[in-house]
From TrEMBL:
Family statement: Belongs to the short-chain dehydrogenases/reductases (SDR) family. FabI subfamily.
Binding positions (NAD(+)): G14, S20, I21, Q41, D65, V66, I93, K163, I192, K193, T194, L195, A196
NCBIfam families hit by this protein: PRK08159.1 (NF006019)
Protein name (Swiss-Prot/TrEMBL): Enoyl-[acyl-carrier-protein] reductase [NADH]
Any one biological process term the GO annotation gives: fatty acid biosynthetic process
Active site (catalytic residues): Y146, Y156
Gene Ontology MF, one: enoyl-[acyl-carrier-protein] reductase (NADH) activity
Recorded coiled-coil stretches: none
EC number: 1.3.1.9
InterPro entries from the UniProt entry: Enoyl-ACP_Rdtase_NADH, NAD(P)-bd_dom_sf, SDR_fam
Top-level EC class: oxidoreductase
Keywords, alphabetical: Fatty acid biosynthesis, Fatty acid metabolism, Lipid biosynthesis, Lipid metabolism, NAD, Oxidoreductase
Pathway per the UniProt entry: Lipid metabolism; fatty acid biosynthesis
Length: 264
């Protein structure tokens, strides 16, 4: 992939640590020659993200809380001042109260429903609005989804409803931004043990279940998702937009999941 991303500059939102999916994508893009910028959420993550940014010679834009419009504006102002334009955007952000990522969906509160939608769905549109203005030579926007958007997964609950809305918004954004040669896609990744995933009830069980039932008989890594991300961010996928692409060892095609995980 060397040179595939040479001359391209991109903003990566959602690195929390070296297990983040955003980090897997950032590494793949950097290896292919991209120039990167990172945001982080809050001071607690700053000390994790700064050394990671240094590893990839990335610009640290600063704190960005996507539930706060002023904070998003400030980050895009910095990008504009530093780079003047943008070629790609990675949105790997999601949040829901972990007390509602267990038990029944029907018990979801209005407050957490709204917060989950704001941070996990609307924020992609909010950053797309700002990024559009900087993608003067076209561009690629990428977000992260999960199979819980399509089918009911235990404990995923309101997050599944949010991912369904996120996937729909990928299609609407693709249509709106297509005439400017800005492509908008999502990767629907198989389960990976990350900070966000640790909030989901019985996540270990979901991982094992996927491992035993996916056609490839294994779960996916952030480096594997990173390589798929590289395809979407690069010109290799220049004819592709509005796509929800599964990177899940094929799990989503299996109709009859037959094998229970024997060791849990
Ligand atoms: P992660 O915890 O490493 O990343 C989640 C990120 O969201 C963190 O960097 C966090 O700071 C950020 N975030 C949360 N609220 C925010 C806010 N208000 N403002 C700005 N940033 C905020 O976990 P991850 O698994 O790498 O998650 C990245 C994306 O991938 C999420 O959208 C997640 O739903 C999705 N995803 C994860 C899996 C999985 O199994 N891990 C599978 C499919 C999709």
């Amino acid at each position: 992939s060397k040179g595939l991303m040479t001359g391209k500059r991109g903003l990566v939102m959602g690195v929390a640590n070296n297990r983040s999916i955003a980090w897997g994508i950032a590494k793949a893009a950097r290896e292919a020659g991209a120039e990167l910028a990172f945001t982080y959420q809050g001071d607690a993550l700053r000390k994790r993200v700064e050394p990671l940014a240094k590893e990839l010679d990335a610009l640290v834009v600063g704190h960005c809380d996507v539930s706060d419009a002023a904070s998003i504006d400030a980050c895009f102002k910095t990008i504009e001042d530093e780079w003047g334009k943008l070629d790609f955007l990675v949105h790997a952000i999601g949040f829901s109260d972990k007390d509602e990522l267990t038990g029944r969906y029907v018990d979801t509160s209005e407050a957490n429903f709204s917060k989950t939608m704001l941070i996990s769905v609307y924020s992609f549109t909010a950053v797309a609005q700002r990024a559009e203005k900087l993608m003067t030579d076209g561009g690629s926007m990428l977000t992260m989804s999960y199979y819980g958007a399509e089918k009911v997964m235990p404990n995923y609950n309101v997050m599944g409803v949010a991912k369904a809305a996120l996937e729909a918004s990928v299609q609407y954004l693709a249509v709106d931004l297509g005439p400017k040669n800005i492509r908008v896609n999502a990767i629907s990744a198989g389960p990976i043990k990350t900070l966000a995933a640790s909030g989901i009830g019985d996540f270990r069980y979901i991982l094992k279940w996927n491992e035993y039932n996916a056609p490839l008989r294994r779960t996916v890594t952030i480096d594997e998702v990173g390589d798929v991300g590289l395809y979407f961010l690069s010109d290799l996928s220049r004819s592709v937009t509005g796509e929800i692409h599964h990177a899940d060892s094929g799990y989503h095609v299996v109709g009859m999941k037959a094998v229970d995980a024997p060791d849990i």
